[in-house]
Amino acid sequence: MTAIANTAAAPTAPAALQRIGNVVRLHVANPLPTLVVPWVITFIIFGLNIAIELIVVKAAGGLQNLDPDAFQYNGGISWIAIFMMITAVQAMNLTFRFALGFSVTRRDFYLGSSLYFVCLSLLYGTGITVMAGIERMTDGWGMNAAFFAPWGLVDQPLMSVWGIFVMTLLLFFFLGAAVATVWVRWKAYGMYAFFLGLAVLLVGAAWLITTSNSWGIVWGYLTDHSPVQVAAATLPVTLLCAGAGFLFLRRATPRA
Amino acid sequence: MTNIIEVDNLTKRYGKVSAVDGASFALEEGGIHGLLGRNGAGKTTVMQLLTGQDFATSGTIRLFGQSPVENADVLSRVCFIKESQAYPDGFKGKHVLKSAPWFFRNWDSDFAHALAADFGAPLDRPMKKMSRGQRSTIGVIVGLASRADLTFFDEPYAGLDAVARHRFYDHLLTDYAEHPRTVVMSTHLIDEAANLLQRVLVIDNGKLVIDADADELRSSATTLAGRAADIDAFVAGREVLDRSRLGGLATVTVAGLSEADRRAAASAGLEASTVSLQELIVSRTGGAHIPEENVA
Description:
- The complex is a heterodimer.
- By secondary structure, chain A is mainly α.
- In chain A, 76% of the residues lie in helices and 0% in strands.
- The longest helix of chain A is centred in the C-terminal third of the chain and has 54 residues, at 158-211.
- By secondary structure, chain B is α/β, with parallel strands linked by helices.
- Chain B has 2 domains: 3-214, Rossmann fold (3-Layer(aba) Sandwich); 220-287, Alpha-Beta Plaits.
- Helix content of chain B is 34%, strand content 30%.
- In chain B, the strands form 3 sheets. Chain B has a 6-stranded mixed sheet with strand order 5-6-7-3-8-9, with helices on both faces. In chain B, strands 11-12-10-13 form a 4-stranded antiparallel sheet. A 3-stranded antiparallel sheet of chain B has the order 2-1-4, with helices on one face.
- In chain B, helix 4 (109-119) runs antiparallel to helix 5 (132-145).
- The chains are: A mainly alpha, B alpha/beta.
């Protein structure tokens, strides 16, 4: 029995950074859902868009018969933001419960997951920007098409495109994390309260803007500022969501 | 010897329901112990509280002398295997074994894969598609191969057949002998696991009703069989836990017989036998209407 008493003398866990790094590794233990599937789906959507555009070109009897910006109003790439939000929801729900079962603290789990979300935002933001660069070099895949940096981003410098994607993905990751932690902590009633509260907030804001005749100011803000500035304006919301998610998860329990 | 677990006046309430109600106990380091009780008695809640997965309403918990809640120093030495364990979307058995060493510092990968082969665990199957027994198998492998200083098994073999269960007992005992540690196990199959257990904690309705050494507990009651008249004469004035009668023959279970009592029973022509742990616990948690008292 003395052997057991000796093991009790070394009670320190690995350093915090290593523990957080291990949570990141947990997220990529199975790399398919977050590192492979999104690219595969993106390229399939891209391929389908190109195919449809080729059909349109053929039907129109050549590119010269189409408006020059005919293929630039494309929203296909925005699916990735929704996908990342779902990724965050899955992480905060299933992976959270799993990690607690693997003796991870809530703090380490949230910090590690947040780090992974930041890494994914940078990875996908960079990847999409690289594709947008190729898109521009090839004159929109030879037919003025814009998929990776569509309308609104067509005339923006690539650095801005990168910043916009990274900040948008961050926003959606932490929106997902915040909503999912409300679910993990308070289940269905939390969801009712959250979405009713959100609806009240949005309708209230619209009411305020309308009654104070301020829609002009809103549109003015959006047109006076570059897309990257508008994207940067979401950072406080992203940080708020990240902080809220942390606070909600700190007292969450992994009940099935 | 130091206490690896110290629980003082632990209470967990969900609304008006007390899942755990003022439980106090301590476990010394080393050994395989049982946390037993009926469905809904509070076993899982106790384990969730001990591993920091749930928060106590009141009372204190000390593991290795510290609170387990959000405490990486404590939790990194703890492994908690439960039937309701959730797995990340798309996780297969092999992903579970791959990520285990990042969180359990004593993880033995060779042992884990040997266990997987022995139990026939389908490592390439998604956790979601596994049967209850297969999921239990993965849990059992993690619980054994993690070799955590303190391991909790909550109904570790739900859905496993008798052969797999006995393999689990064998592996647990063999590995425990080579790598002594502390194991706390909850189970419905009390008699099956009884020989493994050193200390037995029984909770009923959130209250700790038995906290005793398993051997002491077994010797705390005796079943006597013989002629009804002899039985009646012998048990007069004793605490009777259970009684049954068939014609002129009767059997009774009586508490706390001394050596002299046993000799007296034998000379009165009564046949004495020990009571199984399961019978004892059943009689103390609702099987018979006996006032509760502490055996320890």
